[in-house]
Amino acid sequence: MYQEVILDHYKHPHGRGLRDGDAEVHHVNPTCGDEITLRVKYEGTRIADVSYEGQGCSISQASASVLNDLLVGKDVTEAQRIQGTFLELMQSKGRIEPDDAMEEILEDAVAFAGVSKYPARVKCALLSWMAWKDATAQALGESEPAERKSA
Amino acid sequence: MYQEVILDHYKHPHGRGLRDGDAEVHHVNPTCGDEITLRVKYEGTRIADVSYEGQGCSISQASASVLNDLLVGKDVTEAQRIQGTFLELMQSKGRIEPDDAMEEILEDAVAFAGVSKYPARVKCALLSWMAWKDATAQALGESEPAERKSA
Amino acid sequence: MTQLPGLLDTEAIRKDFPALDRVLHDGKKLVYLDNAATSQKPRQVLDALTEYYERHNANVHRGVHVLAEEATALYEGARDKVAEFINAPSRDEVIFTKNASESLNLVANMLGWADEPYKVDHETEIVITEMEHHSNIVPWQLLSQRTGAKLKWFGLTDDGRLDLSNIDEVITEKTKIVSFVLVSNILGTHNPVEAIVRRAQEVGALVLIDASQAAPHMPLDVQALQADFVAFTGHKMCGPTGIGVLWGRQELLEDLPPFLGGGEMIETVSMSSSTYAPAPHKFEAGTPPIAQAVGLGAAVDYLQSIGMEKVQAHEHAITSYAVKRLLEVPDLKIIGPVTAEDRGAAISFTLGDIHPHDVGQVLDEQGIAVRVGHHCARPVCLRYGIPATTRASFYLYSTPAEVDALVEGLEHVRNFFG
Amino acid sequence: MTQLPGLLDTEAIRKDFPALDRVLHDGKKLVYLDNAATSQKPRQVLDALTEYYERHNANVHRGVHVLAEEATALYEGARDKVAEFINAPSRDEVIFTKNASESLNLVANMLGWADEPYKVDHETEIVITEMEHHSNIVPWQLLSQRTGAKLKWFGLTDDGRLDLSNIDEVITEKTKIVSFVLVSNILGTHNPVEAIVRRAQEVGALVLIDASQAAPHMPLDVQALQADFVAFTGHKMCGPTGIGVLWGRQELLEDLPPFLGGGEMIETVSMSSSTYAPAPHKFEAGTPPIAQAVGLGAAVDYLQSIGMEKVQAHEHAITSYAVKRLLEVPDLKIIGPVTAEDRGAAISFTLGDIHPHDVGQVLDEQGIAVRVGHHCARPVCLRYGIPATTRASFYLYSTPAEVDALVEGLEHVRNFFG
Ligand SMILES: Cc1ncc(COP(=O)(O)O)c(C=O)c1O
Ligand SMILES: Cc1ncc(COP(=O)(O)O)c(C=O)c1O
C-alpha cells in the first residue's frame, strides 16, 4: 500500500502549515489519535488556499498533501466532484482499479487505491478530506446560506 | 433408577396424610414444583409420628413414604444417623454401592442409590428428608432450646 | 413411514447434525425433542468455528495486521448476514449480545437510564404478558422495583392464548414499553403482533418483541413486525451458545444511553469523561463473542440455504401430526393451543397424575429427550394450576417417526406408572 | 538460536496451536505478537468445543435427559476447574460472564443497586487508576454519573508505575470501591497489590482487581491477593471468545443484588415478584456460554499441564530479552517500565516520529502481527503525550527468534520511512 507517491508526499508534504482562511476545523480520528487542523480560503467559489497542520500516520499526512495539490485553485463544484471520486475509491475495498478517467480526476490520489483494501486505514486517508468538506460548508454556508442545506 | 421398591412406595405410600404433630413445615423444590407439607410428633426424643401431604414425582413421593417407614418409632439421635447416611448416599453421584452395613441402616431406602446418579433428581429424593430435619429442629428446639444450635 | 405434505428431506438434513447420531443407553438412538431449549448444530457451523480459530483468530477492530483484519471482516460480515436474515433496514441496527436474556435486559436498562421521552420512572407503566419467559419478566420486575414504574400484564385465556379483551386498560397513556413474546416457549402460542403494536403506537409506547422461539422457525421480518426492538438467541437456531441478538430502530439506538461500558463501545475516553461510538458498537462493550458471531452467521447461511418458509412448513406439518397423535394418548392434556394454527413447534402436556419428572425420565431411558418443568415460565404453570409440564419441541430435522417414538414412549410411561 | 534460561519447549508447544502455522503474504510465516489482545487457541481447546457440540450439546440445568445431564456436568465441571486454577475457596464464587468487561460492569452495577454498607451514592467515592483499560474506566464513569459518586484515580510516574505517594488522600473513608489492573495491557506494569489492599481495608472499601492480563500469564491466587472481586477473560488465556470470569467473595455475592434478570438466575418467579438462586447462578441470567465454559475449562487444563510458574518464567525470559533487544533499536522508546522486573509480557513503544500505524503496517507486510493504537487505555497515551503506541506482546509459545524477527522488522520500518 505504500506507493512511492504516498511516501513522497509524506516526507515532503505540499502546502503544510496554517495560513489565513475563511473557516477552520479540527478533526480527530479517535481510534488512532490522528489529528488535523485545516483552514480553507475562498475567493468567491474558487478555492484560494487549503492550509493545514496535523499529526498522524503517513497515509493521513500524505492524503492532506495530495488534497492541497488537487483542490487549490479549483472551483468548489469541481472540488466536490474530486472529493466524491476519492471517497468512492476509498470505500471500494480494493475493488476499484482506477482507470484513465479516474486518474485524470484524482492524479496522484489514485495511489491510495491500495489503501482501500485496509479498512483500518481508510479513515486515515479520508481524515483531511472530511475536514475539508466541513470547512467548506462553514466557509460557503456563511456567505451563501442557500447552499448550506446541501453541505 | 425406578427400582420396584420405589414404585411400590410411590403407588402405595406409607403413612401419608396429615395427622396431629408438634411442628409443621412446608418445603418446595422451586425448579420442579415438588411440594411437601410435613408434621412430626415427638414423645420425648422418640418419633411418635411423621405425617405428610404433598405432590411431586415418584421419587419425592416414594422417598417420603420410606422416611415414614424408617423413622417412626426411632429415637431422634438414631433418626439423625439414618438421615445422615441417606444424605451421604444421595450425594455420592452413584459412587457408593450400598454394602450390608448401609442396608442395615437404610433398609428400603438403599433402593435410591441409583437416583444419586441423576443430579436433577437428587433434590426430589431429599425433599422430605430436609423437611423432616427442619420440622425436628422446630419441634425439639422449642422444648429443648439447647439443641437448637446443632440443627 | 408417515408421509406428510410440506416435509423437508430430513434424511439429508440429519446428516449435517452429528449429535443426532448419538446412541444412548446401550443402543438407543437419540430422539432429540428438546429443541425449544436449544437446537443441535450442523457441521457447517462447527466447521466455521474451527476455521475461525485455526486460521483467522484475532481481536477485532483497530488492528492493522492480517489476522485482525480477517477477524473483523468475519465478525462484521456475520452482522450483515443477520441483518439480511431479519430484513433489518440497516446493519448498524444489529447488536450482538451474549444471549436473548442480555438483549432483553439491555432494553430494560436503556430505558431505566434514558432521558425523556423514553425514561421509565414512577409515573409510568411497563406492560408484559403472563406467558413470558422469565428472561422477559425478571428484567422488568427489577426495572419496576428500581424506578417505581408499575408492572402490568396481559392474562391468558383457558385455551392458551393472550387475553387482549382489556387491551385499552392494560396499555394506556402511561405505558412506556410493551414487551411480549412472539411465540411462547411453553405454550407454543404464536401471538397476534398487530393488535398490540397498533395500541402501543396509539399511546406512544415502545414495543419489544421476544422472538427467541420465532427466529429459528419462521421467516422473521423486523420491518413487517413494526416493533422497535426484537430480541433472539443464537443457540436455538443452529448457532453456538454465547451469542444473542438485539435489533433496534436506529434513531432509538442513537438516542438511548449505553448499558455496559468498556473497550470497543467508546469514541474517545479521558479520565473525566467519555463519548460513545455509534450503534451497534455503543452497545458492545469489550471483546465481542467473535467466533460465536461467525458461527451464527454460518447458521443463518445454513437456514437460508434451506429456506425459512420451508422450515416453517415442515414444522407446521410435524406439529399438526404431533398434536393429532398426542391427543390419542389417554389422559394426555395439551397445555396450550390444541390445534396447529398460530402455534410453534413446542407442545407442552400433562399425562394424568404422572409427574413430568417421571415422564421425562422414563422417556429418557428410551433415548427420547424432552424437557420437563416450568420451562422458565412458571406463571403459566400457576395460571393453569399445574406444577410442571412435559414439553416436546421439534425442529427442521424432526421426523414423523420421532413423533411416533414419542407416542410409543408415552404409552410405556403410562404402563410403567399405571 | 538464542538460548535463555527458563524457556519452555516452544517447539513442542507450538505444534498445539494451528494458527501459528499460518502463512501470510506469499510465504511469510506468521509471527504473532498480539497476545495481549487475544491469544491463539491450542488444538485441545478446539477439540473440547467440537466434542461438546457433536456429542453433549443441550441446555444446562433442570434437564432430566442424558444430554442435558452431560452438558450440565461439563459446564459445572468447568467451574470447578476455574475455581481450582485461581485457588478460590469455593466453586460457587466463580461466575461465568461473557468477557472481562461484563465482569467489571457487573460489579459496578451491583454496587449501584446495593443496600448499605455497599451502596455507592453521591456521598461516596470510587477509586481507579490512570492505567486502566477502558473497560475498567467507563463502567465507573457511568456509575459515577448515575449515582453522583465522585470518581478519583491514581496517577502514573514517568517510568510507567502507579504513583501511590498520595494514597491516603486518594483512598479515604468515603471510598466504597477501589478497582485497579493487576498487570497493565499497555504499559506491562505489574502493580503492587498489597499496599492498595491494605489501605482499602483500612477504610472499609471493597477491592476489585482486573486480572485480564495476569490470569493468562502467571499463577493467580485470589486468596493471596486478598481482594473482594477478581475479573478476567477467557480469550486471552487460550480459551474461546465469549467467556469471562468474575470471582467474588461468597458473602458479598450473597448480599449484593443481581444484575441481569432472567432464566437460570431465579429461585421462583411469579408475575408480581421473584426470588433469586444462590450465587453463582444468581448472576448468570439466561442460557450461559456453555460451550465456551467447556472450552475455558480445557484451556485451564492445558495451561496447568504446562504449569503457570513455568509459563511465567518463560515469559519473563522472553520479556527480558525483548526489552534488551528493543532498546538497541535507534529512536525506540519504551512506554512503561524499561526493565523486566514487575512487568508482564506486553511492551509498548514509539519509534522516532514514525506513526504506530505505519510501524504496524510495515511489520504486517513482513508477517509480524503487533497492535497499534491506544490499546483501550487512552488516558495512558494522554499522560505520556503520545497519540498511540506500537505494542508487542508475548505468550507461552513466543520464541527469542520472534523477538529477533521483530527487531529486524523494526529496522526495516526505520529504513522505509527514514
Ligand atoms: C487489562 C484489561 N482489562 C480488561 C480487558 C477487557 O477484556 P474483554 O475485552 O475480554 O472484555 C482487557 C482486554 O481487552 C484488558 O487487557
Ligand atoms: C421465549 C424465550 N425467551 C427468552 C429466552 C432466553 O434465551 P437465552 O436463554 O438464550 O437468553 C428463551 C429461551 O430460553 C425463550 O424460549
From TrEMBL, chains A, B:
GO terms for biological process: iron-sulfur cluster assembly. GO terms for molecular function: iron ion binding; iron-sulfur cluster binding. Residues 1-124 form the NIF system FeS cluster assembly NifU N-terminal domain. Pfam families: NifU_N. SUPFAM superfamilies: SufE/NifU. It comes from the Bacteria. This is Nitrogen fixation protein NifU. It comes from Streptomyces indicus.
UniProtKB/TrEMBL annotation, chains C, D:
The keyword Ubl conjugation does not apply. Its cofactor is pyridoxal 5'-phosphate. It catalyses: (sulfur carrier)-H + L-cysteine = (sulfur carrier)-SH + L-alanine. The keyword RNA-binding does not apply. Residues 31-406 form the Aminotransferase class V domain. Keywords: Pyridoxal phosphate, Transferase. Its EC number is 2.8.1.7. SUPFAM superfamilies: PLP-dependent transferases (SSF53383). InterPro entries: Aminotrans_V_dom, Cys_dSase_SufS, PyrdxlP-dep_Trfase, PyrdxlP-dep_Trfase_major, PyrdxlP-dep_Trfase_small. GO terms for biological process: cysteine metabolic process. It holds the Pfam family Aminotran_5. One of its GO terms (molecular function) is cysteine desulfurase activity. It is an enzyme of class 2 (transferase). Belongs to the class-V pyridoxal-phosphate-dependent aminotransferase family. Csd subfamily. This is cysteine desulfurase. The lineage of its organism: Bacteria, Bacillati, Actinomycetota, Actinomycetes, Kitasatosporales.
